[in-house]
């Protein structure tokens, strides 16, 4: 269908800066941030990430200024699910986060995306929660991880929004969020961690899909979340955690042929249960979705 | 008889008379309408049966000359030209009674045509001048048409062919309607029809129009279906079907093999023509008209919400619709908006949508209707719900879910979310009991046991309906699955059991052979004519030219991959062919490799399949032809199969729908001869010393061959049979192709009976095994049983194959096929005779002449010689007659049997041996490869490759190892083939005798 094209073509990335209140709320990953987060370091890492996206990959970066009132607002991925020219503004599990969507909504409109609100879809969405970090879009279909933050009702809304695609629900076994245990590593490649829970989820995905994906298994869960982008020059970029953060998995990325690997640190955010992809919303505006 | 009037009638009559001379004799006697009526009734019955299958479809597609030939042959022998006159006289007599004559003749003609259709076809060409030509045309409509057309025909004897065809096609519609009316005009006809109990059927077509035609009350579904297809000028009809609404307001598919009346169970003869199987890749369709119809269906699906899609996609699809219907966007005109509203494109049609549509429409400038259709389909096919047939159900916990049946398998949805999916390969069995629907799942990698998943449907009817849909979809699509390097495409066969039509792969094969100028068709909504090419929709029979004036626009469709603009129209068309050819080539290559490896002899050329026939096959009657085509492919596979023997067992376990091929491997160990262990194929000639053994072997081989052929082709053949056989509605045998998948059938007729669980093993044809079938209607059971029996009779080998299970090799497979057991129990006499000494006895030591049969795994010597292991199904159809099966006695000989009448005759003839080639190369290892191509009823041809490997060596030789090696090699070379049967023959000291 019109909107089906190989995964990875993006032109824009929407990010939001690290607020001073970074880490003041409990990340969903760690109930109690044992190690105190280093705000400065977090900002540096964020800067590296955005720098890589802009300068290395060549995306147009839209940066929403941080809002101290919203300590989790930098987790852009959770707030919206974007496919083609449609952006579904999600309904995060935690009430406090729902106001994060305002700025995002505005940006989406400026980018001429069709904004769909979860509340809009099919009337009552009572109880529906959905966070983008539980959504894996493969270019062909959606997998929605049913987790502590995303429920079936939320997945139904997503399915209603993106009707062209199959939307499958999978249990999130190996981590707090679906994207924490897997991510796209190429148009047809899924990177997934080696944990038993992740394997279980992967099996479920394989069971549910009509397509065949290459699977790149990495020994460390932290390495399972990467950001794959096919840059404007049709070059493959992969942002992944650096050796320091996943010493055993980097070699796996080397297997990817003709990729430009961009080690990007994310240690501070990960303390809050976030991952690389949590920072950004990727959008493809240049590509006509027809 | 009078002059011209007579001529008209003559024409009609001729066919009638010619076919049934007796009729004529009768006629003169009675002359009255009553007689005619009586005849008609009989004729009708016959016609129904045959017409549905052959008459209509075939006759229609057959070149006129062929038809004429046949007609002549029939007529000529008796009366040829004179007959017409005589008939005329008769006609005149009848005519004296105004119109009735015509009617009666028409019907009679149908009968005769049906009976003699094949002959007629052939001879018709010759008899162009003869009036017979008139009758030749579409049989179904013939009666009607003939009455109307006859005059024309008589005038245009020579031209009659074309004229008829044109007239038929062009006028087919008219005739259908007008013809009927005209018929009615004559009082006689009215009378007859009344007697014949004609019923007016109303078929709602995809464009919303209604097609009305008359059918005999007892007509079968396919009769009506073919009439509709004829009306639509649709050749790739296998994707479509007729549906009716049952008394419970449920939409049901009309079973082509059953009487309409018995299905609808009401007097509401209203039907809907719609897409039954959504082709996963519409670009692979051959004709634009087929794509157009698919587009119509999808437009409706989208508009109705059955095919959900996003706003953007919806707009995009609609924009292609606009382009197809109205052409380029005209900025000046505001039309498009009006059109959009007219088109009722979307449920949620609004201003925004319209604007989007228009915007997109502008971008399609220059696109031809065909291109627009192709683009439409390219986008629509990617929708996740494309081709998914949803059924309401509840899961085991009582939660409402939707079960979606599609080309890939069974999908489980909860609301819009996909919560589970069962690909066809993972499904071992599909069954239903009362309102419960079950699927048995193949154990996963980490699981050890099969699991059964149950769903609750609203009632028994819906469970049954779901089950049938599953069976049909599995049959239609599974084999053609492009996934693994299986044989699927070529060999693909549907599970015959219930699905009587052709599988996707088959229909692709057939459609690839379509050789007619792209038919003109009018886009009803816009009246835009897609093609202006050839004025008259002639069907050219000749294979040679594919080129028929395709316009550039059209070309796009053909390209499976895409719709590139103009240019490559023909290439596109040919693509399908190319693909198949490529595959064929691959197979051939693999085969050739085998040959090289095993034998030095040049690779046998696969039998040529008449593409024509394939085309013809489209009509149920012509099913035979398909077999041939299919058969051609299978042969290669068969060869591979031989090699794979050991593997096949395993594969079979896993593979659901695979074509099983039998490999006959005989090991002959010569104790006396010291040579190294050689793997030689000694297929054909068994050691002379063992007269019995030889015979047995020969038989077994033949049988095996039959079996193999049957298997690959079975699906087709089965389907054809089912169609062809009026009486036998179900062909249990069909299942053979599916190794593991078992689809329990419930009798359709017995729908009411809730308890029926009939499980069919997809794999095996042994439907007989179906224990539960008791509930099945007698009719169904009878046919099933009958077939098996027939098969047994005809091909003893088949039964043997089943029996052979005893062999260690076989056991796994057999185990899989639970159903097979009963069949197995029945041991063909031949085998029994042969089998006596099977396993267990140490034969090696004994150097006696008696050949010993050694199971691959088991060294035990069987004095009797042969152990036949056949995985596949025993006997599928009676059609395959042993008699016909070519026996290759001499290796070097090539025996080619050509069916005299491939086209028409095949129907009645069970199996015609097309070609048999045996190539033997002698060396230490002797490998004999035999290609046997048979034509089965359906018009399908099956090719079986038998490989005999003779291992010559000292006693010391480890035969098992040698055999395993041989099989392994063969397997490696032909990974996509499976070994259906392995016969191990051990001989000691007899080596010299061995002719090979």
Description:
Chain A: Keywords: Hydrolase. Chain A: This is N(G),N(G)-dimethylarginine dimethylaminohydrolase 2-like. Chain A: Belongs to the DDAH family. The complex is a heterodimer of chains A (290) and B (996). Chain A is 24% helix and 24% strand. In chain A, strand 1, helix 1 (39-57) and strand 2 form a beta-alpha-beta unit. Chain A starts with 11 loop residues before the first strand and ends in a 7-residue tail after the last strand. Chain A has helices at residues 39-57, 76-79, 101-110, 152-161, 178-181, 196-208, 250-253, 267-271; strands at residues 12-16, 60-64, 80-83, 86-89, 114-117, 135-137, 141-146, 166-171, 182-186, 189-193, 214-218, 227-230, 236-240, 259-263, 280-283. In chain A, the strands form 5 sheets. In chain A, strands 2-1-15 form a 3-stranded mixed beta sheet, sandwiched between helices. Chain A has a 3-stranded mixed beta sheet with strand order 3-4-5. A 3-stranded mixed beta sheet of chain A has the order 6-7-8, sandwiched between helices. Helix content of chain B is 45%, strand content 13%. By secondary structure, chain B is of the alpha+beta class. Chain B is globular and about 85 Å long. In chain B, helix 1 (4-17) crosses helix 6, helix 2 (21-30) packs antiparallel against helix 3 and helix 15 (335-343) packs across helix 16 (351-362). The chains are: A alpha/beta (290), B alpha+beta (996).
